[in-house]
Design a protein that fits this description.
Helix content is 33%, strand content 15%. The chain has helices at residues 42-55, 65-72, 75-78, 86-93; strands at residues 3-5, 12-16, 33-37, 57-59. The chain is built from four helices and four strands. The protein has 104 residues and is of the alpha+beta class.
Length: 104
């Protein structure tokens, strides 16, 4: 891992095994870090999670940090109006650079 900086602050916790200089094997578990936030109410918790995700710096491997930040901006997520099929449908609609929607 080339660079690592994780968020902190009141009511923000990151559970992880990685640290600056860690080597992440090519067949790593996709969960290298878990971000947990708490706030008094869903809107405040979403805002805190967005701020914390914006502070994440992980260079040297691909992450889903940007995708998660986009997810937190979705009105249906903020309103808690989703089920197990919602994320899959949302991902199918997302543009993927160089890949037509029909091929996703």
């Amino acid at each position: 891992m080339e660079e690592l900086s994780l968020p902190s602050g009141p009511w923000v916790r990151v559970d992880t095994w990685i640290e600056p200089g860690s080597t992440v094997p090519p067949f790593y578990d996709s969960l290298i870090a878990k971000l947990i936030v708490w706030a008094d109410g869903r809107p405040a918790a979403i805002e805190r999670a967005r701020r914390a995700l914006g502070e994440v710096v992980i260079q040297g491997i691909s992450t889903t940090t940007q995708l998660l930040a986009e997810l937190l901006r979705e009105p249906w997520f903020a309103a808690a109006e989703f089920d197990t099929a919602t994320l899959e449908a949302w991902l199918v609609q997302k543009p993927i650079e160089g890949l037509p929607a029909a091929d996703r």
